[in-house]
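Handout, section B. The chain below has 157 residues.
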Amino acid sequence: MDSSATIIGIIIALIIIIPIYLMIRSQSVFKKKIKGIKDYYSRNNHFTFGQTETQNKKVLALDPKNKAFLLIDFNVEPEQVSFIDLNEVSSCKLVPTTEGNSNTIIKLDFEFALKNSGNQSITFYNIDRDQIGQVYLYQDHQLAKKWTRILQEVILR
């Protein structure tokens, strides 16, 4: 009787421990990828992306002192990485793209007006990458608005 209780206890412990281990391992791999990408774009430690925010498999990183912005989107394979040197930018705005005549947002872009000429857009949200279909839209839209204000403040300094 005692051996069966011990076996059941061990099985229950494994059922609890294995998913926790896998979650911690995947989180550490995710953090290592982010650190590797940040190190690559730091340009010999010129940029230090101290201000970082992560949401819905997207990472936004900013170096406010040296004026650099990094967006990493892990919703696509391979991950999409966008880097902007904000010293070359005069303004930033958020551009939502809607579907036809409806108000349904299918895409959110950061649009950077470059000082020399032209614009550069970085896609922040795309409905095609939203696995469940507009579930992340509200959160991503709020985050994009917040970061548009932050980026505009850094650009104007």
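Note. The mean pLDDT is 83. Compare this with the example in section A.
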